[in-house]
Amino acid sequence: MSSILNKINLCIIGKPNSGKSTLFNCLLGNSISPVGEEYGLTKKLFKNKFTSYSHDFTIFDTPGLRRKSKIDDLDEKERNKEVIKLIDRVDVVILLIDSVENITKQDFRLAEIAITKKRILFFLFNKMDLIDEVNKFKTKIDKYLSNNYSQYQMINTDFISAEKNIRIKNFIKEIIKKNKLVHIEITKANLNKFLNYLNKLSKYPKIKKREIKPKYIVQLKASSPLFKVFINSKKKAPLIFQRFFDNSFRDYFKIKGVPISYKFISSSNPYSD
Ligand SMILES: Nc1nc2c(ncn2[C@@H]2O[C@H](COP(=O)(O)OP(=O)(O)OP(=O)(O)O)[C@@H](O)[C@H]2O)c(=O)[nH]1
Ligand SMILES: [Mg+2]
């Protein structure tokens, strides 16, 4: 993973035929990776570089992944492994989805891997030129994901046509924005303001009638945002509190679509303020 802000590594993953190689070529402005209707056309990794908005991008095109249960040959298993390993080497994972088809379990499985590895993740809907009512479609997708996907806060969505070169530049700008956000530094003063805001809001989740509250927050140095959060509980931070805290934190600081990690520290004297 590159730590320098203007160097960004990307990989395009997703089902066969979603248009990964078409997008790869479109970004490079060159037909390097073969494209076609045949499922599983791309059999090996393609890697290349391009520059856009003063950023140096390295991009990987990958073989389309099929569902695990459908895989019987060894080659395909190896390709799966290779793609999963590749996620370790990039900053941004582009999960490409054919807009004419539904999001699949396989897509969510790949998304989970990217999220666990703390990568910036895009659900990128391709072939938008085949969709009649674009705005309706976008609303439908956002609604579906926010209602049905617990990791909604961790992901970004965008809508393009790789073949017709629609909204590609815009997508690159989004990538750059999110990559900057990964290096966000929040001052102590602003972290304290957030604590005051939470206290005023007074909506802390209760465990056995007692509110679990954060007492103090510090940001730690790390390759993606990491915060130490001291709480007024002798026990490990309950999941319900962790969710509440993450949602509030992201809403307040307007951080969506990048990984954030918290180290919740239980206080030895939970009753003190
Ligand atoms: N209408 C439309 N067709 C597209 C678009 N992008 C790709 N296609 C078509 O979709 C088919 C598959 O494209 P590929 O780029 O080869 O797909 P892939 O994801 O690389 O496929 P595999 O290598 O098999 O995993 C081709 O026939 C492309 O012309 C798009 O934005 N709009
Ligand atoms: Mg391909």
Structural category is alpha/beta
Number of strands: 11
Q: Main beta sheet: strand number and arrangement?
A: 6 strands, mixed
User: Strand-and-helix sequence, N→C?
Assistant: EHEEHEHEHEHHEEEEHE
Describe the structure.
The protein is α/β, with parallel strands linked by helices. It folds into two domains: 7-181, Rossmann fold; 188-266, K homology (KH) domain (GMP Synthetase, Chain A, domain 3), CATH 3.30.300. Helices cover 34% and strands 23% of the residues. It contains seven helices and eleven strands. It has a six-stranded mixed beta sheet with strand order 2-3-1-4-5-6, with helices on both faces. A three-stranded mixed beta sheet has the order 9-10-11. Strands 7-8 form a two-stranded antiparallel ribbon. Strand 2 (46-52) and strand 3 form a beta hairpin. The longest helix has 15 residues, at 134-148. The protein is elongated, with a radius of gyration of 21 Å. 29% of the residues are buried. The mean pLDDT is 92. The site of guanosine-5'-triphosphate has 24 residues, from helix 1. Residues 20-21, 33, 41-42 line the site of magnesium ion.
Keywords:
alpha/beta; GMP Synthetase, Chain A, domain 3; 2 domains; 6-stranded mixed beta sheet; 3-stranded mixed beta sheet; elongated; binds magnesium ion
